[in-house]
Amino acid sequence: MNKKQTFYGFTLIELLIVIALLGFLSITGLSLFQGSQKRARDSRRKTDLWQVTKALEMYANDYGYPKSTVGGVESGKIIGCGGGSTACEWGSTWSRETVYMQKLPKDPGAVSYCYQVVSNGYKLFAKLEDADDADVTSGTCNSMPYNYVIRSSNLLPTQ
To answer: CA–CA distance from 114 to each of 33, 35, 45, 78, 124 (Å)?
Structure first.
């Protein structure tokens, strides 16, 4: 008797093709996911700084714009906590008789926000992760490069 054996299953080549396709799809999906996370963190940074500008304007109505220097050295922080001569830490309460922000926002990444007084106004700086963002610009605060700047409304675009 001659029996013919038949095997059912996948060949090695078919398995390798499927594994390669799954690897390609997972890498593509992961890169798209990471890109959307960067854009979400950048959106949060922009929102955070706009909230700080509102609080700065309220503070300016009471005391004028807060300083950003301690002993003549640029700190990158808002000097206006406590009695008005204490640096407000990013991530802490900003108050001076009145609470201006329950919690000064803190950057979701490793680089901290930066505040700088310029002539009769201020600038707020953040470092965006998405270099292709339409709002990317250049600026320096505390000798560190930043790529997102908000200026007070009373400053000229060149200041």
So the answer is: 28, 25, 12, 9, 6
Q: pLDDT digits over 67-116, tens only?
A: 998 877 888 999 988 887 889 999 999 998 889 999 999 999 888 999 99
Whether the CB-CB separation of 150 and 47 falls below 8 Å is answered with no
Contacts of range 133-139, beta carbons closer than 8 Å, 24 or more positions apart: 133/39, 133/42, 135/46
Give the list of residues 6+ apart from residue 111 with CB closer than 8 angstroms, or none: 126, 127, 144, 146
Residue-wise pLDDT for 50-67, tens only, equals 999 999 999 999 999 999
**pTM of this prediction exceeds 0.90:** no
Indicate the CATH number of 36-151 among 1.10.10, 3.30.700, 3.30.530, 3.40.50.
3.30.700
